[in-house]
Specification:
Radius of gyration: 22 Å
CATH topology of the largest domain: Protein Transport Mog1p, Chain A
Protein name: DUF3558 domain-containing protein
Largest sheet: 7 strands, antiparallel
CATH architecture of the largest domain: 3-Layer(aba) Sandwich
Order of helices and strands: HEEHHEEEHEEEEH
Number of domains: 2
Amino acid sequence: MKTISKLPKATYLLLFLFLISVATSCKKEEKNKGSYFGSSQREDISKLITKEDIRSIFELDNDHEIEHKEKKSAISSFDWEMPSDKKLFYSVKLNFARGDRRSSSVIDKIWEGQSKSVYQEKGLQEVSDVGDKASWSTMAGGQLRVTADGYLFFVSFFVNPKKDNPLSKDEMIDKASALAKQVIKRM
């Protein structure tokens, strides 16, 4: 068995490169700490929308099963099936844009950039009376993008199969807006 001092130079080089790559990846991980798939991690993510909010806004009784999942304190989702002739699966997801609280000028720049690059082709529509600024788009089935108190967050809402969705666009906006108002109240 060879000792470390008797290893070939190529092995030393490979070991050195390996250690550098491990150190670099750890540094990148530390830099992105607090985010998950582009979403900010928040300790209160599961408290901002509750099952009770879902029941109230979607008029579901207490016997109706709602599955709540939290992914790495960054995404809170609610899934349920609606009783009807056709199987309809509903899902609501809440996530915040990566980063901490921002100034209104920074939020405006982000908003403008997203509107042009991400939402332009997604049926972008302004929504009033929600947060500082809000818009609805067809992103992910339907998404309400909201700024409030220096934060940017998203309430995504979709029904599967989409073609059987009994809700109009306005009804979807109203329900997502009601959920967003709960988020703002609890932030």
